[in-house]
Amino acid sequence: MTVTRPGYPRWHTANAQGPRSLNADAVGAYAAAGGPGIVFALADGVGDDAAAALAARTAAAAAARTAVHKGPVEAVLTAGRAVRERTLGDAVLVVAMPAERGGYRIAWAGDARAYSWDGTTLARLTTDHTLAEYFRARHQPVTPRMEHVVTTSVRTAGPDEIGTAETTSTGLLLTSDGVHKPLGGSGIRAVLARPGTGAAELVEAALARGGSDNATAVYVEPVAADVTTERFPVAA
């Protein structure tokens, strides 16, 4: 899906269930009336069941509708409260809020990721909250299984456990691990470097590379790349 609205960046989102039994990824995007821009959120349910899917949908919606002045950390905390109220499931989450002077403020819990992209350079903005990253940072051996064990989540993260970052880039990419794990940074850059590509091509490439998870991406085009305007009908 591609969305273009006057005064807002052009952005795309794509999702595929992959070989999983259901889709437990979710995306939220919300522009409050009179607000400075669009808040984007991407959540990935922990597990492959209905509770995980509900947790992801709940987290993404609650985070995206958090007022921008409250900041992205509060968006993650708001998502946590909503998840605990509505389901026994859990999710990981990344949120991007417009910054006052351009770019985005990022907050996350778990291993959903944010990248900046200016049309040439891809920069990773987040660090996975996984057992693998915990031991890697301490120069300890890491096993493949550790890459899939998260150390924070929407349900459990307190304010001091939520990751934060900022970018001045107008180009932004949010991904679930079903995209960034099969592709890696070099694979993501190779896809985005091709003219006219975006979220859909990233998801397709991740599955073609052998991805075994739900795959979801949100891609906000850099302002310089927005040379055409395309109307997209959005259902009510």
TrEMBL record:
PPM-type phosphatase domain segment(s): 10-222
InterPro entries, A to Z: PPM-type-like_dom_sf, PPM-type_phosphatase-like_dom
Q: What is this protein called?
A: Protein phosphatase
- SMART domains this protein is in? PP2Cc
Q: Which SUPFAM superfamilies match?
A: PP2C-like
Instruction: Look up the domain of life of the source.
Output: Bacteria
The organism is Amycolatopsis australiensis
